[in-house]
Specification:
ligase; single chain; two-stranded antiparallel sheet; alpha+beta; seven-stranded mixed β-sheet; globular; 3 helices
């Protein structure tokens, strides 16, 4: 689906579910991915991240996917188990992300920054029927006082965009940012 505005955005349903909160209840729903050929307009993306789950009750998370626009959204997932290799990749990504945040001096402004490894392999040509074999890293900067409710730390406001980009440059995977 193409969302038109000043920026060209592509939104699509990802083949994974996450635990979230909608209203007063936990929900187990799908993730909406958004990608763009333009630099992210974080204010618009935050607006969409609030609007989409309100309108589409089968979606509880919205992520921005960095890199070139996603041409072929994934329709399947990479088989993933808690193996030594998978855990090592996740630990390395978390270590690097936390170091970058700490070295930037913004670690005290962010309440938490989970780093998530997802079984998503982007931009595979569906005609080649290539199986999903890569994973993507997701980072979520979050500000809260009670760890029950809070807001995302918006790049460019609560955290410099450069801090996010430094982490992105370290990884060859697609990296997403939970909005």
């Amino acid at each position: 689906m193409q969302i038109t505005s000043l920026h060209s955005l592509n939104a699509f349903l990802l083949p994974i579910k996450t635990v979230g909160v909608q209203g007063d209840c936990r929900s187990y729903s799908y993730v909406c991915g958004i990608s763009s050929k333009d630099e992210p307009d974080w204010e618009s993306l935050i607006f969409l991240a609030r609007l989409i789950p309100r309108m589409c009750h089968n979606i509880n998370r919205v992520v921005y996917i960095f890199g070139p626009p996603v041409k072929e959204p994934p329709t399947d997932v990479t088989p993933t188990f808690l193996t030594t290799g998978v855990l090592s990749t996740l630990r390395q990504a978390d270590f690097e992300a936390q170091n970058i945040l700490r070295e930037s001096g913004y670690a005290g402004k962010i309440s938490q920054m989970p780093v998530i490894l997802t079984p998503l392999h982007f931009d595979r040509d569906p005609l080649q029927k290539q199986p999903s074999c890569q994973r993507s890293v997701v980072i979520r900067t979050f500000i809260t006082s009670d760890f029950m409710t809070g807001i995302p730390a918006t790049p460019g406001n609560e955290i410099p965009v450069e801090v996010i980009y430094i982490f992105l440059l370290m990884y060859i995977f697609h990296t997403s940012y939970i909005l």
